[in-house]
Amino acid sequence: IGMFYSENLKYGFFDLQVKLAFLLFPFILFRPAEKQLDHRFLARAFVAGTLFSLTFFLIRAAVEYQVSHDPQVFFYMRLSREIHPTYLSMYYSFAIILWLNDSFQRGRMNGFRIPVLLFLYGGILLLSARTAIAVTLFSAFVFPVLYFGKKILETKRLMIYCASAIVAGSLLYFSLGFNH
Question: What does the angle CA 144 – CA 146 – CA 150 come to, to the nearest 5 degrees?
């Protein structure tokens, strides 16, 4: 609707293009599929894409840091010049949810899975988008409760869940202190 009275159509269409993905990804990934493999492949491809983009941004920031010695190249708009940090954080947050879902379906959270989660969480913290950090933490803690239901109350899972909440909450608290 806003496009009808927008003065800057070029920016408006670009902004619409970025936001359209947020609407389309859930429909694509959670549509009825002929095979479960289709969903799993798309989810893993999305996660791989987010990992690639974060790796690219960090390498580019490291190269820029070697020249400028300015640590700000690792944060917010300086880290992700091509896309707004809040949008990019939301993509990373969605990747975390997809990765958690795949981990829970496979029945294990070990080996390569935890470093991927930590890498994506770290990328979100470096992007310093407060709303995205809050949404990521909220969804990362609500998702297991919705997925496991009453099983989350089992002693071992509850301890892991509480420890994760403490670590994530601490990261949020300290990351907010570094913003601006």
Answer: 90
CA 180 vs CA 74, 92, 93: distances in Å: 13, 22, 22
CA angle, corner 111, sides to 167 and 90, nearest 5?
55
Q: What is the pLDDT of residues 74-121, one digit of tens each?
A: 988 898 888 888 889 888 988 988 888 887 777 766 678 888 888 998
